[in-house]
Design brief:
41% helix, alpha+beta, 4-stranded antiparallel β-sheet, 143 residues, rod-shaped
């Protein structure tokens, strides 16, 4: 049985019987008042329960400031952040004939090796550990 039905029965018992057309104005007003009381009581009960749950949950989370541990971890992450990327600095060094002889990328010099026809074959670091062939044919190691 619903709340409205219970209230209707109470009101009918207290006041005059309703007319066959429906509830009288006085009975309808009293019914609205009773419904409002019941709804207010239910809302107050629910609100009290929500407030108690909120009070119980508040100690679980910091309200005003983050924890010192979290701040420490965030500062450590900021320190570890990589520096911003920048475009590489590149320059090309040419020989007397205008052919590219070397390229310098961010201060590291790479020499260009060419085959017998003058085509570029590879880049090698300019650290003295390699041997640039002459513009003639590459020596063949035969045993």
């Amino acid at each position: 049985m619903g709340v409205i039905q219970i209230l209707e029965r109470r009101l009918v018992a207290k006041q005059a019987r309703p007319s066959p057309d429906g509830l009288t104005d006085g009975l309808a007003g009293a019914l609205r008042k009773e419904i409002a009381k019941v709804v207010e009581a239910e809302v107050a009960k629910a609100l009290t329960g929500h407030q108690a749950a909120l009070r119980a949950a508040q100690p679980l989370r910091p309200v005003h400031s983050p924890s010192p541990d979290l701040e420490r971890r965030l500062r450590a992450l900021e320190r570890r952040a990589a520096p911003p990327l920048k475009a590489p600095e590149v320059s090309i060094q040419r020989d007397g004939a205008g052919l590219a002889r070397a390229i310098v990328i961010n201060g590291q010099r790479l020499l260009i090796q060419r085959d017998a026809s003058g085509l570029m074959t590879r880049w090698v670091p300019d650290d003295g550990s390699h041997r640039l062939p002459s513009y003639g044919p590459a020596p063949i190691n035969r045993r």
